[in-house]
Design goal:
The complex is a heterodimer.
Chain A lengths: L2 H14 L7 E6 L1 H5 L2 H13 L2 E6 L2 H9 L5 E4 L2 H9 L3 E17 L11 H11 L3 E3 L5 H12 L12 E3 L4 H11 L2 E5 H6 L6 E5 L6 E9 L9 H12 L1 H9 L9 E2 L4
Parallel strand pairs in A: 1-2, 1-3, 5-6, 5-7
Antiparallel strand pairs in A: 3-9, 4-7, 4-8, 4-9, 4-10
Chain B lengths: L1 H16 L2 H34 L5 H11 L4 H12 L14 H37 L4 H11 L1 H17 L2 H7 L9 H10 L3 H34 L1
Helix pairs in contact in B: 1-10, 2-5, 2-6, 2-7, 3-5, 4-5, 4-8, 5-6, 5-7, 5-8, 7-10, 9-10
Classes of the chains: A alpha/beta, B mainly alpha.
Chain lengths: 269, 235
């Protein structure tokens, strides 16, 4: 009476789970490229052309490199040059390619209590440290977090000593940290793509931009089949060639949600 | 309050428009959770009955372990499964990481202890009531377990519902082992987490409202079932 019903339900559920696609790759990626909607723009174009299904796992750059190091991905799209070069030097990845760039920005409350606004990021961070105005850090070993820590150290400040007082280490992704920042009135260093597409801006504004130190380069690495025999090398190379070639670079160039370009292709350089 | 009004309007819009991406996410949630709860029932009912009426060494310890496992943090389950299913892990060759199957496994691990512990309690209570009758009928241990489980079925629906609640609400484990991959492993809860991180709070809340409505519908249906199967047992 009930048993056949349950058996039928179980069979229906089993059968309904998506079967594994024949040709697919897994990309371990930084979050900014997913949160901004870049993949929703790029992947349908590539998938239509090649039939290769691209599965994106979006985590921080640090975790993406670790996951790929465990062979749980065929390709990396990240933004932390030193860590990327170390990954290749350890033999885990084939060559590192420059893919595209944009920039980091400092956002904060429009009232700007620390008077951080300007075009000098080091001066802005020093002003925040001096006035002990709240600052939210991702503290998650992501590419943005690595860049932020490098800037603090260049500014000669040690914010970690103030962790829990004015320096708030969220240990979360960019979006979660921005949500906390806008709620607490805390300054946040973010990539421009995530900020431009972020919908919960509250009264926050861009306070520092345009400093050459805020350059944000994205890199692409195909995982080495020597280190990870399960790497789908043919499909991964196909996707890499497409992204680095004229078609992919043009597609990146054309991605402009809200009429504003968010990533600037620079693979050929 | 306008944010809440916006979210409610958005939720209604999602249901009315029923666009393909949204339906895909709802369907995958239902499949993963439904399958996980069915498997958890298949393991948890007999395990609970065994713990209630079985007589074997280590029964107390196993009972305690099952009860304690009810409080397993989903993130820990996700992490352990990631380490097992990763290509670098012992089960890596199966290629299950970042698949719906991995998500089902994670939810089975989370839900089975709840169903087994609740079943044990129910069957123990019934056993106190029926044990003399069963002994008079010279029922074997297995027959007794089967009879008690059958008599307990209205309460077992409640146990299954408790498990379903945990599975539907869970995000930590399925995020890690599923990867929240668009069109493959994105379910309601991981979609809510993604929209929250995009700052799309109204849309995230709207998805939450849809999840709540779905949960209400399932609970109502199963409570109806519970009443139907409850009647003959006490009639």
């Amino acid at each position: 009476m009930i048993r056949p019903l349950i058996t039928a339900a179980a069979l229906a559920l089993l059968g309904a789970l998506p079967a594994t696609a024949q040709s697919h790759i897994t990309v371990q990626s930084t979050t900014s490229t997913q949160n901004s909607g870049l993949y929703e723009h790029l992947l349908p174009i590539f998938e239509e052309k090649t039939g290769i299904d691209v599965r994106v796992v979006a985590v921080g750059t640090g975790q993406a490199l670790k996951n790929a190091g465990n062979c749980d991905g065929d390709m990396l799209i990240t933004h932390a040059r030193a860590a990327e070069e170390a990954f290749v030097a350890e033999g885990k990845g084939l060559a590192r390619h420059t893919l595209m760039y944009n920039d980091f920005i400092l956002v904060g409350p429009a009232a700007d209590p620390a008077s951080a606004a300007g075009d000098d990021i080091l001066a802005a961070l020093s002003a925040i440290a001096e006035s002990e105005a709240p600052f939210a850090s991702r503290a998650d070993d992501s590419g943005t977090n690595k860049a932020e820590l490098a800037l603090w150290s260049e500014a000669g400040a040690d914010p970690k000593a103030a962790s829990g007082t004015w320096y708030l280490e969220t240990g979360s992704g960019m979006g979660a940290t921005l949500n906390l920042g806008t709620a607490q009135g805390a300054y946040v260093l973010t990539d421009r793509a995530t900020w431009d597409t972020f919908a919960n801006k509250s009264d926050f504004e861009i306070l520092v931009e345009g400093d050459p130190k805020l350059f944000n380069q994205y890199g692409l690495i195909v995982v080495s089949p020597a280190a990870c025999p399960a790497t789908r090398i043919v499909e991964a190379e196909t996707f890499a060639k497409w992204l680095l070639g004229p078609e992919g670079q043009d597609a990146i160039q054309a991605f402009a949600p809200n009429g504003k370009q968010l990533f600037f292709p620079n693979a050929a350089e | 309050m306008s944010a809440f009004r916006e979210a409610i309007a958005e939720a209604a819009g999602l249901i009315v428009r029923a666009d393909a991406d949204f339906l895909e996410i709802v369907a995958l949630s239902a499949q993963v959770t439904g399958l996980a709860v069915l498997i958890a029932c298949a393991i948890g009912f007999p395990l609970g009955a065994l713990l209630a009426v079985g007589r074997f060494r280590g029964r107390g310890a196993l009972s305690l372990a099952v009860s304690a496992a009810m409080g397993l943090p989903p993130v820990v389950v996700g992490l352990v499964l990631y380490m097992l299913l990763s290509r670098a892990g012992p089960l890596g060759v199966l290629g299950l990481l970042y698949t719906p199957t991995a998500m089902v496994i994670a939810q089975v691990v989370l839900v089975t202890p709840i169903i087994a512990a609740l079943t044990r309690q129910v069957v123990e209570d019934l056993d106190a009531e029926y044990s003399e009758t069963l002994r008079a009928l010279r029922a074997t241990r297995a027959q007794a377990m089967g009879t008690l489980l059958w008599e307990a079925r209205p309460a077992l629906v409640t146990a299954a519902l408790a498990g379903l609640g945990r599975a539907m609400a869970e995000v930590g484990a399925v995020m890690i082992v599923g990867g929240n991959i668009d069109h493959l492993t994105r379910v309601m809860t991981t979609a809510i987490a993604l929209e929250t991180s995009r700052g799309e709070l109204a849309l995230a809340l709207a998805l939450g409202i849809v999840l709540l409505v779905a949960s209400l519908a399932i609970n109502a249906a199963l409570m109806g079932l519970r009443q139907r199967i409850g009647e003959p047992a006490h009639g």
